[in-house]
From TrEMBL:
Protein name, per record: Alpha/beta hydrolase
Top-level taxon of the source organism: Bacteria
Alphabetical UniProt keywords: Hydrolase
A molecular function (GO) term: hydrolase activity
Keyword flag Hydrolase: yes
């Protein structure tokens, strides 16, 4: 009787092992397929601002989905220690995938740390989906995260190639009410007469920014006083000097009557993004 039970148990375990092996093989095959899904597609990463979340990106992302510009949205959650968790389903035919990046620590003011976390997101997408080309869209402080990411990694050929960069309400040379220097006049090249320390730290980019590779769109709001209420237009426009003519193309757009936090809710901004990212 015992021999019969052991025989049945052995057969059952053998069948379970076979089933588990089949499931593992299917999952492993799917993982390998996923790791190549973004290989020949340009992925667009959206970064939210200070004290914000990926919820702030939904207006623009939903607009792009409604227009048919994308059919794929992936979530990238960055923990307080910089660990990245990717979630989302991939359709059989991926079109212009979008990544909504969410930082759990949305008050980190050390741009070097923010830049490292940005790299963690890029590497996670590269490992899981085989991402080789990307666009980056930042609002407010996250523009600095993108720039500090580039400061540390612009010459790293192992990382995905940056194709387009969109800066919305960027405070490259100081923030009103926070920085001592926040509205320094700029010349025709975008060079500020006075420079905030965080801006000075980015000056090496003038010789490191990817040469003739990245198309740049710089958007800022003006509520009628040369600021968007939080960032001066001079601070936003000082991006141009950091690029030093190394960008493939550069466009500036002033959105009149729209404040800092409302820029990512602006239909005009949605139109500009759609045209710049997908219609060129």
């Amino acid at each position: 009787m015992m021999k019969k039970k052991w025989k049945v148990l052995t057969i059952a375990l053998f069948i379970i092992a076979i089933i588990c092996g089949i499931i593992f093989s299917i999952e492993n095959s799917k993982a390998k397929q996923d790791s190549k899904r973004f290989a020949n597609i340009t992925v667009t990463l959206f970064f939210h601002g200070f004290e914000s979340s990926s919820h702030a990106e939904k207006q623009t992302v939903n607009s792009l989905k409604k227009r048919g510009a994308t059919n794929t949205v992936i979530k990238a959650n960055v923990s307080r220690t910089g660990h990245v968790l990717l979630t989302g389903k991939l359709p059989s035919k991926v079109k212009n995938p979008v990544v909504e990046v969410n930082f759990e620590n949305n008050r980190e003011a050390d741009y070097s740390i923010d830049g490292k976390w940005t790299k963690n997101v890029v590497v996670a997408l590269q490992k899981k989906y085989g991402m080789q080309k990307m666009n980056m869209v930042g609002h407010s402080m996250e523009n600095m995260d993108i720039m500090y990411y580039l400061l540390a990694n612009a010459d790293n050929k192992k990382l995905p190639r940056l194709c387009k960069q969109v800066d919305i309400a960027g405070h490259f040379n100081g923030i009103l009410g926070y920085s001592r220097i926040n509205n320094a006049p700029i010349n025709a090249t975008g060079k500020p007469m006075k420079m905030d320390q965080a801006y000075r730290n980015l000056l090496p980019l003038r010789n490191k920014y990817p040469n003739k590779q990245v198309k740049v769109l710089n958007i800022y709001g003006n509520i009628g006083n040369g600021t968007d209420g939080r960032v001066s237009n001079n601070s936003s426009k000082s991006l141009k000097y950091l690029l030093n003519g190394r960008e493939l193309s550069y466009q500036e757009y002033e959105i009149k009557g729209v404040s800092h936090s409302k820029l990512h809710e602006s239909r005009r901004v949605d139109d500009l993004l759609d045209e710049f990212l997908y219609e060129e």
